Amino acid sequence: MTLALARKFPGTPLEDAVRRYPDVPRLIILKTDVQRRGVHYTEEAVSYLDPEKHQTTGTHIFGARDGVIALRPESLLLRDGTSIITTPTPLEENPYVVDLRDGRPWLFDAGVALEEVDYWPAPAFYGKDSSSGVPMKNIVSARPQRLNIFPYRYCTFWNNGKGCAFCDIVTQLKKGSKELKIPARLDPVEVGAVIGEALKEEGRFSTVFLTSGSIIGGSRPFDDEIDYYIAILKEVGKNFRTPKFPSQLIGTAFEKEQLKRLYAETGLTSYTSDIEVLNEELFNQHCPGKAEWIGYREWKKRLVDAVEIFGPGRVNTGLVAGIELAGPHGFRSEDEALERTLAEAEDLARQGVSTVLIVWSPRPDTALGAYKNASLDYYIRLARGLHALRVKYRLPIEHDSYRNCGNHPDTDLSRLLPLWEE
User: Fold this and answer.
1) Is 39 helix (H, G, I), strand (E, B) or coil?
2) Separation of alpha carbons 157 and 161, rounded Å
3) Secondary structure of the chain: what % helix, strand, coil (to 5)?
4) 267-326 pLDDT, tens per residue?
5) Which of 95, 151, 223, 347 could be stapled to 38 by a disulfide with Cβ–Cβ 3.0 to 4.6 Å?
């Protein structure tokens, strides 16, 4: 049954925000709010989904906001090509609604038709199987513009129950293995072969992306994680004619010698290590495994060390923006959270490390799942602040931009505004 009525009128919360922030494009504000509130697909919207043409949910390492694995669109595209990476959300949490209008999917809010959208197109390799008989989409998945490799769907910080408070990787691992038959650990040779098959679709993909849960084992902590990444990147690199290829790795904060190996032995061109929250006390509380094995100050030091190896503008860290306000120990106000977060982000920026945000989606199987994320105004102000730091310190963010990622409202701003004037 169609839930939304196709009608337009001014004065929606979205249009009010657009008027408050005239320097931020409307579609970036819309994208940010859709990520913040999530989406609900009507039956008609799901019926529009064609698995032969569109990507469907299920291949990523984190779960949906409603905790359900079902045949639904992977996510949405706006008419300017902007990706919206969002998750299905229960109706009682007031998500945006995706419904059909004149036979096409649109975003609705409270019955108001806001914007026509499209579903992510399925890559050509999605219909094929690997040499071992695994569907290729379960080995390498895709965003509209990049290839994703999730080689290890577990995080060993959970061995003693010290996984991050917002993370549901273990729950999703169990669901993925049982319901989707996704391998928990990928064979590097098979990954390289699937990447080669994907690249036959000329002009589709701009970069290769790699991330997994942390692996603490090895002669030194995280050597096993480094060895595994190197093995995979070497196999991926066989598909390119140059020593380096467009690529991004999100990994643990590695020691300098480990980073040197990663850079020297592979074609990797950029490195990200997510600190998740820019406050030592909240880091210790929400990321106890990272605090136990590395520590907040050492994590930041290793990010700065990485700039020596990968270069300024090739190293960044991510925030799960909104967790700094959650729970009894969170910041008391959004103003305080902005001031203190941006102050620490500036300390990193002046040393060559960029900070990007993702909009926190509280998931049901996590310690913070019962809390709400922040206001739309907060995310807009934080995005503007992070972008301003990149302008001030002349930090390009191409490897994590809308072209190569699409998950950060702040890096979307580099698309339409000059990063700096010469």
Assistant:
1) strand
2) 7
3) 40, 15, 45
4) 999 999 999 999 999 999 999 999 999 999 999 999 999 999 999 889 999 999 999 999
5) 95
